[in-house]
Amino acid sequence: MPDTYEVPTPEAGEGREGDRDIVDRLRARDEDAFVALLDRHSPAMLRLASVHLPRASAEEVVQDTWLAVLEGIRRFEGRSSLKTWIFSILVNHTRTRAQREGRTLPFSALVNPPEDAAEPSVDPSRFLGADHPQWPRHWATPPKSWGASPEEWLLTRESQARVQQAIDALPPGQRQVITLCDVEGWEPEEVCRLIGVTRTNQRVLLHRARSKVRRALEQYFEEA
After folding, report:
1. What is the topology classification, in CATH, of domain 108-223?
2. What angle do the packed helices 82-100 and 16-27 form, to 10 degrees?
3. Which pTM was predicted?
């Protein structure tokens, strides 16, 4: 698959006018435009490449991706957003690097979870049985409160570290989707096009990832 493969999209995305301006500036070798783009996307690119590669290799893949962007920008046709095009190059480089390093990278298994592998959002043992005389199927062990202001707690440095630890412990497919959707703020359709999943599988992966992160945070509060 070529480095400059564009993921087609049926409709124009947001910021397409801005894309054209940036593309024109990149083609004119405007250094400020390139630095701004690099600063905007490099952290997310590194997080995504690190799902499948060790840190050092992921950093090299990000560098190679930016070189490919500069080399291929004149061939960019705008059939996808500039962001999606850049990240599609990153995904291709990540796959190539993982194969070269002898790492198994079964993308189809990662992004197409089996239908019979459903996972509950909450451990069923935390609920009372259906035959309970007073509170059938109610909480047996309710979640511990996150305090008076959970929003304020989630903004702390410690909370961000805990959330990242929980994400880092996820299986690659779930980690990839939650990173794009919840950390980077990508729209579901963008994620599906980038990594080649159906909308249903994207929802399943995101649901499982969020459930595991939530359980990790609940466990942290119970131990605090």
Report:
1. Arc Repressor Mutant, subunit A (1.10.10)
2. 60
3. 0.69
pLDDT tens, position by position, 137-180: 555 565 555 555 555 555 566 777 888 899 999 988 899 999 99
118: Cβ contacts below 8 Å, ≥ 6 apart:
none
Count of C-beta atoms within a 10 Å radius of residue 161: 10
Judged on CB neighbours under 10 Å (0-12, 13-18, 19+), 13 is middle
Alpha helices in the chain (DSSP H): 16-27, 31-50, 55-72, 82-100, 107-111, 150-154, 157-168, 172-178, 188-195, 199-223
Whether the Cβ atoms of residue 183 and residue 167 lie closer than 8 Å to each other: yes
CATH code for 16-100? 1.10.1740.10
